[in-house]
Amino acid sequence: MSSLRLIGSVASKRHLKLPLLSRRAYATPATFKHQEKDPQLGDYPDLPWVSNQELPARGWWDQQMRRNFGDPIQEYDEVLSMWGPDTPPIPPHKALFQLSLAISAFVGFGFLCKYALVPERPTVPREYPYSGLVRELGGLEENKARTETEEIDE
Fold it and tell me: At 110, is the secondary structure helix, strand, or coil?
């Protein structure tokens, strides 16, 4: 902020005007509404929202639940206990990026195998004279597929 004031004072001394975009504008601070405490809890302590899975594994009276004797229990203990949903080891946006990277690598490898690594045909396709033996096989009318309404001659 002080460097911006210095630049502004130098610019005003030199009779230069800074464009509006180069000046730093501060937003008004956000006001957060403090959640009202549940009246049914009374004087029970307001504990932080931290999963027991994120706590160190050793040094607890109850090592399985990572809790000391006499510690207050979180209001949402069923979610924050050791038996609650697992906390993600990496942030979800990084996991999504890594998943999309793996999928694109898999699809890219598939396209590489399909279009770049396919060898040429080792033989030449067979060519028949007279438009592919149309006349020798009886013509186009004789070789058409039958429709369902045609009766089979017995």
Answer: helix
